[in-house]
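Hi V.,

Quick status before I head out on leave. The structure for the redesign project is tokenized and pasted below; the design run finished overnight.
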């Protein structure tokens, strides 16, 4: 009796989170301002955990398969289409393979290890859910002609890559390899490559010597000539430092203004270079996406492109999350053992062996 109640609760939780998952996908597509990633991820995470628990605890195959099919078919409430049904059949078959993998691992192991067993069905179950989410998204976008896509975020990737690229691209930017470098440091490093150091120019000394020779002729001693030469170089150096400070100030103002125009917000100069550049790249990518959408929204292939991008996002993300969700499944199973809702027994088995 206790086992039947537990199975009923788990089945109800599985169907509830399944419905909430498909509904969250519908809201993310059709309701402006709704959660695009967090809510669907949470709903499908709990759905994954409880479905795996049902695969573990339901010993009758038809019950687990029926529950799996019912939880997946709930997607039809939000995207009723013939071809969506074909994708559903493929997803249902993949979920059946996941069930078989999990059950087979449980049966052949001499010790119950829920995390290990659930992990064996990860590939098929994550693929099934990803396909069905993508299918629901495709038909919803095609029918409603959605004119926007979720914003792409690659800040961490560009934050790591940009300092390396800057360091490689220019000798003046070698110090920019540090990810903590600021915008002002970048502008100064970039502008320093265009400034001329007059004191390091050999022609300056020759010009000074020629000027001394013209003004004083041969009536000046070598020591006096060197003294005059040093005085002139010192004067030039002071003017150069003053010029350098002024040009650096102008370069900082112009650089900040250009970056402010790109980001459409004021730059103070103490922002991290990697963060600012990754924000600029993200902004440009999303602007191009929106521009392409406005051009291609009449093209029937555009929903396919969006769906392909979505699938390539959620499948790897789901595979990554599945490892942690397997631990969550194992933890809930441990709680059922702790409260004696289920129990593990040892049995004697016969096995074949080659001698």
């Amino acid at each position: 009796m206790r086992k039947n109640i537990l199975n009923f609760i788990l089945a109800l939780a599985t169907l509830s989170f399944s419905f909430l998952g498909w509904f969250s996908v519908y809201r993310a597509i059709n309701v402006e301002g709704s959660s695009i990633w967090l809510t669907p991820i949470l709903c499908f995470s709990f759905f994954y955990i409880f479905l795996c628990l049902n695969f573990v605890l339901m010993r009758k195959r038809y019950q687990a398969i029926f529950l799996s099919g019912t939880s997946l078919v709930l997607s039809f409430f939000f995207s009723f289409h013939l071809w969506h049904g074909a994708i559903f059949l493929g997803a249902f078959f993949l979920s059946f393979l996941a069930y078989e993998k999990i059950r087979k691992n449980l049966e052949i192991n001499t010790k119950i290890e829920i995390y290990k067993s659930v992990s064996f069905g990860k590939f098929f179950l994550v693929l099934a859910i990803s396909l069905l989410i993508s299918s629901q998204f495709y038909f919803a976008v095609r029918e409603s002609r959605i004119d926007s896509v979720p914003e792409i975020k690659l800040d961490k990737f560009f934050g790591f890559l940009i300092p390396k690229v800057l360091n490689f691209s220019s000798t003046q930017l070698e110090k920019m390899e540090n990810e903590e470098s600021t915008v002002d440091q970048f502008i100064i490093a970039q502008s320093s490559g265009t400034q001329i150091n007059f004191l390091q120019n050999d022609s300056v000394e020759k010009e000074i010597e020629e000027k001394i020779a013209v003004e004083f002729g041969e009536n000046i001693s070598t020591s006096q000539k060197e003294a005059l030469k040093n005085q002139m170089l010192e004067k030039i150096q002071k003017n150069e430092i003053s010029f350098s400070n002024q040009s650096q100030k102008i370069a900082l103002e112009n650089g900040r203004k250009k970056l402010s125009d790109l980001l459409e917000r004021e730059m103070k100069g103490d922002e991290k270079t990697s963060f600012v550049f990754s924000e600029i790249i993200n902004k440009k990518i999303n602007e191009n996406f929106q521009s392409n959408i406005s051009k291609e929204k009449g093209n029937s292939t555009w929903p396919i492109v969006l769906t392909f991008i979505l699938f390539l996002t959620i499948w790897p993300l789901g595979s990554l999350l599945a490892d942690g969700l397997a631990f969550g499944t194992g933890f809930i199973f441990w709680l059922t053992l702790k409260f004696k809702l289920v129990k593990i027994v040892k049995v004697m088995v016969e096995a074949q062996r080659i001698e």
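Above is the designed sequence. The longest helix spans residues 222-263.

G. will cover questions while I'm gone.

Best,
W.
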